[in-house]
From TrEMBL:
The active site is at D67, N136, H138, E143. CDD domains: GlcN6P_deaminase. It comes from the Bacteria. SUPFAM superfamilies: NagB/RpiA/CoA transferase-like. Belongs to the glucosamine/galactosamine-6-phosphate isomerase family. NagB subfamily. It catalyses: alpha-D-glucosamine 6-phosphate + H2O = beta-D-fructose 6-phosphate + NH4(+). This is Glucosamine-6-phosphate deaminase. NCBIfam families: nagB. It comes from Paenibacillus filicis. Catalyzes the reversible isomerization-deamination of glucosamine 6-phosphate (GlcN6P) to form fructose 6-phosphate (Fru6P) and ammonium ion.
Length: 241
């Protein structure tokens, strides 16, 4: 595990975007696993800048998002579909048909999970999986538990997670109670994992995830078993390491 700590958000964003840009420059067909939440926004901004500067093209790349809320229309302002359109897809040259996000409005959610997992399998190994982390150690929407599900599945969101994400909704009660998420097994299949964490409020979970015991009670700790993880931290998030 390669842990890098940055003095400024700009430096962190440039490093994150630089890793993704370098991948696309050597492999224009790269399969990107993408994440939502506040954490990756600055990296997406840098990627858009790199695209506008002509440094990188996403024309032949494909993307697979980690998760999506259940019950929100795609057009809902807080859906992860809308998030990705706003922050990245509408501003780069990626082909819309190669941007994949689970459908949280599917009539048959179990069938949708199977479809998404099969799509991932058939598309080949993800080259780089971008990840943030929840305060309780969740990755994607894999919440801490005694056991974890390997593949894409429906999850019940913890209250703590709903509260943390309420800032993206008009009122807290609008935060869905369920989501579809890639499983930890799905995530760990990626060739490389790029974990990004910012802020003092994540310092304790960063320590647990990277240096604590490997346990399903901290899903991010399972990243310790992956052979190629790069962690980008700001100073606050890395302050307890
Ligand atoms: C959300 C997302 C995760 C994200 C995490 C942290 O619930 N499902 O993919 O990494 O919580 O979010 P943030 O980056 O906003 O702190």
């Amino acid at each position: 595990m390669n842990i890098l700590t940055f003095q400024t958000q700009d430096a962190l964003n440039q490093a994150g975007a630089g890793i993704i840009t370098a991948l696309l420059q050597t492999n224009p067909n790269a399969r990107l696993g993408l994440a939502t939440g506040g954490t990756p926004v600055g990296i997406y901004e840098e990627l858009v800048r790199a695209y506008q500067a002509g440094t990188v093209s996403f024309q032949n790349a494909s993307s697979f998002n980690l998760d999506e809320y259940i019950g929100l229309e795609r057009t809902h302002e807080a859906s992860y579909y809308t998030f990705m359109q706003q922050h990245l897809f509408s501003q780069i040259d990626i082909a819309p048909e190669r941007c994949h996000i689970p459908n949280g409005k599917a009539d048959d959610l179990d069938a949708e999970c199977l479809r998404y997992e099969k799509l991932l399998e058939d598309s080949g190994q993800i080259d780089l999986q971008l990840l943030g982390i929840g305060h309780n150690g969740h990755i994607g929407f894999n919440e801490p538990d005694g056991t974890l599900t390997r593949g894409t599945h429906v999850v019940q969101l913890r209250e703590q997670t709903r509260e943390a994400n309420a800032r993206f909704f008009d009122t807290p009660d609008q935060v869905p109670t369920q989501a579809i998420t890639m499983g930890v097994g799905t995530i760990l299949k990626a060739k490389m994992i790029l974990l990004v964490v910012r802020g003092r409020d994540k310092a304790e979970i960063v320590k647990q995830a990277l240096q604590g015991p490997i346990t399903t009670e901290c899903p991010a700790s399972l990243l310790q078993t992956h052979p190629h993880v790069v962690v980008l931290l700001d100073q606050e998030a890395g302050s307890l390491l």
